[in-house]
Amino acid sequence: HLSHFFFTLYLLLGQSCCETDRLLQGQYLKDGQELVSAFNIFKLKFFNFKNSSNRYLGIVYNNLYLNDIQERDVWIANRNNPIPGGPGSLTVDSLGRLKILRGASSLLELSSTETTGNTTLKLFDSGNLQLQEMDPDGSVRRVLWQSFDYPTDTLLPGMKLGFNVKTGKRWELRSRLGDTLPASGSFVFGMDATFTNLLTILWRGNMYWASGLWFKGRFSLEAFSNYESLFYFVSNESEHYFMFSVDRPMMKQHFPR
Question: Which residue intervals define the domain Bulb-type lectin in the entry (predicted)?
Fold first, then answer.
């Protein structure tokens, strides 16, 4: 249903932190454990939805930071591959691959790139989760994988909506089936491949909604104008995408359900 299609725009300031924000190669993040971003804004953890025993690995807002009882997920690694009826774990294996495990068996391989150097998984205060190959001096040699390249139904500052011209990689949001059913739904929000300065919602491949063309820093659709100041458009020989940012100290907005 369209009522379940939404995305959220967030920018939050942080607090002091006392927990780890990274998983080192060979370590396991077990069910009941969590990574916490440096300023205590986001957590990576296993959780389940009400009336379901399926376990999901996802990034959620730290409810202590939000002063809220309910944890709100912004990204789910295995939305279409839940762990049925039991605990799971996450590991960076000896080859640098990022895997979700059920028991000793691999359930989902998030990154299959093999490396020769040390590999670290880090959760940032932006809500991005990065798998990094490290140099001996502790600097980042390259980013192997990041959650911002695989958005689910929530848009955070720094995420892209668009596509890579050379690889065909698309960055788009896909609705969930319901509030407690995070599997991919029928609505897709992203950039139109024909008119690259247009945002659209597609329902089963058919046009459902369009933002109006982006021209001189604004969308032509008046109903979308409340959000245009958040967005900027990038177009070059490699990529075409929209991204948004906010300059106020705290902001939380929802597009209408």
Answer: 20-144
Q: What is the mean pLDDT of residues 95-123?
A: 95
pLDDT tens, position by position, 126-157? 999 999 999 999 999 999 999 999 999 999 99
Token pair listed for 72: 């709100």
Architecture label for domain 2-148: Orthogonal Prism (2.90)
Q: Using CB atoms within 10 A of its CB, is residue 51 exposed (0-12), middle (13-18) or buried (19+)?
A: exposed
φ and ψ at 73, to 5 degrees? -80, 145
Find the angle CA(116)-CA(122)-CA(124) to the nearest 5 degrees: 145
Q: Which of 28, 32, 52, 51 is nearest to 43 (CA)?
A: 32
pLDDT value of residue 221 = 75
Average pLDDT, rounded, for the chain: 86
The domain segmentation of the chain, as residue ranges, is 2-148, 151-254
Cβ neighbours around 66 below 10 Å, total:
15
